[in-house]
Amino acid sequence: DQASHKPDCCIVFQRSQAQAALREGRDFDWNELVSQAQPADPVPLRATDPLYILYTSGTTGKPKGVVRDNGGHAVALRYSMHLVYDASPGDVYWAASDVGWVVGHSYIVYAPLFAGCTTILYEGKPVKTPDAGAFWRVVQDHGVNLLFTAPTAFRAVRKEDPEADQLSRYDISSLKRLFLAGERLDPPTYEWLKEHTRLPILDHWWQTETGWAICCNPVGIEMMTTKPGSATLPSPGFNVQVVDMEGNQVPAGEQGQIAVKLPLPPGCMSTVWGDDDRFRNTYLAPIDGFYSSGDGGFVDEDGYVFVMGRTDDVINVAGHRLSTGEMEEVVAAHPAIAECCVVGAHDDMKGQIPVGLVLIKDGATIDHDELEEELVEMVREKIGAIACFRKALVVERLPKTRSGKILRRVIRQIADGEDYAVPSTIDDPAILEEISEQFKG
């Protein structure tokens, strides 16, 4: 009813829990159609024909329609199942994501089947469906060997079950490795998973635009030593460099923009749907000769890549450029904190000052003013008084996209008292009003 482009038809998969009322002539029952369907022959396509258009989750503005091709995509995903996940035919592979996002496209629908694995489709959340043991139950019931999800999923589990009591109820001995991607894997979440599962916890970094891992621990070739906070090394085919605003490579340990020297390997986007200029201006023009990832970070002396967050999450405090990702790492290390977000708010004197939004673990009892004092002291000790971190607001939840990414841009606009548009990708718009009230308070 709300759509401006009316569909010719809708195919509905009926659920016993909530039957949909079908409109005759427009709505069709999935099971009825399948029962009458005839097999169709495969259609030959060119390797460069578009396979799908997938809109980015839109944390930074208007979503972009990423165009993926057929041939390079198939080659890259088949290779990645070996390189990144060390998956073998017959393995049970579970990407605990949504089919509508890039993880679901790449690693629920396509890659596991290319590699001869069983793939699992899961409906529900890591918590409250029915509890924080949901993931462990699926692992036990289906003999999952490889599990890949976003850090935000395990932060939610950790918040509701900080001592991992639910984990002890299930047999997860089938699991060989845990993989995390989609946003920065903060060291506290990494350490919590490592302590309670005793499994290899492998971070990797990629984007909707690339379709597979830019950086990973290449377990299919050689398991590297893991470093908390690092996505390990560039995948073969990705020449990853950290550069300054002019495209000059910066020394090891120094933060800058993370970019990939052209050409890109197979599997990456070919353009933005219907807007080649936007593709060039967004990804290729900012740094000549490079794909601009939009993420910032550094490479250490061993070549390990540390992704600290979006480059627009670097704030300028009294002339000093500081990473909000680095501050989040410190704040998240507090034993009472389940999840946090730090943004830069406008300040007449210093330009910007950091403000933290924090979620407290279930069962944690600490006075909010006392918690704020402790967090301020932790940031001062780890980063320095120069950070000017003095404010931490306790919130019930953070505004996120349905794929689990925190909507930092909107939080910044709220913090600055600006008008904001509710992003089309937000999980629950009511959260924004809750956050607004916190800042008013």
Please characterize this protein's 3D structure:
The strands form 7 sheets. A 5-stranded parallel beta sheet has the order 6-5-7-8-9. Strands 12-13-15-16 form a 4-stranded antiparallel beta sheet. Helix 2 (71-83) packs across helix 3 and helix 10 (408-415) packs parallel to helix 11. The longest helix has 15 residues, at 368-382. It has helices at 30-36, 71-83, 102-114, 134-142, 151-160, 187-197, 276-284, 324-332, 368-382, 408-415, 430-440, and strands at residues 10-12, 27-29, 50-55, 65-69, 92-95, 118-119, 146-149, 177-180, 201-203, 215-216, 233-234, 239-243, 256-261, 271-272, 290-299, 305-310, 314-317, 320-323, 337-347, 351-360, 391-394. Helices cover 26% and strands 23% of the residues. The model has no long low-confidence stretch (mean pLDDT 91). The chain contains 11 helices and 21 strands. The chain is globular, with a radius of gyration of 22 Å. The protein is an alpha/beta fold and 441 residues long. Among the domains are: 1-38, no CATH class; 85-203, Rossmann fold; 318-440, ANL, C-terminal domain (GMP Synthetase, Chain A, domain 3, 2-Layer Sandwich).
Brief digest:
The protein has 441 residues and is α/β, with parallel strands linked by helices.
Task: Note the topology.
Blueprint lengths: L9 E3 L14 E3 H7 L13 E6 L9 E5 L1 H13 L8 E4 L6 H13 L3 E2 L14 H9 L3 E4 L1 H10 L16 E4 L6 H11 L3 E3 L11 E2 L16 E2 L4 E5 L12 E6 L9 E2 L3 H9 L5 E10 L5 E6 L3 E4 L2 E4 H9 L4 E11 L3 E10 L7 H15 L8 E4 L13 H8 L14 H11 L1
Parallel strand pairs: 1-2, 5-6, 5-7, 7-8, 8-9, 20-21
Antiparallel strand pairs: 3-4, 4-14, 10-11, 12-13, 13-15, 15-16, 17-18, 19-20
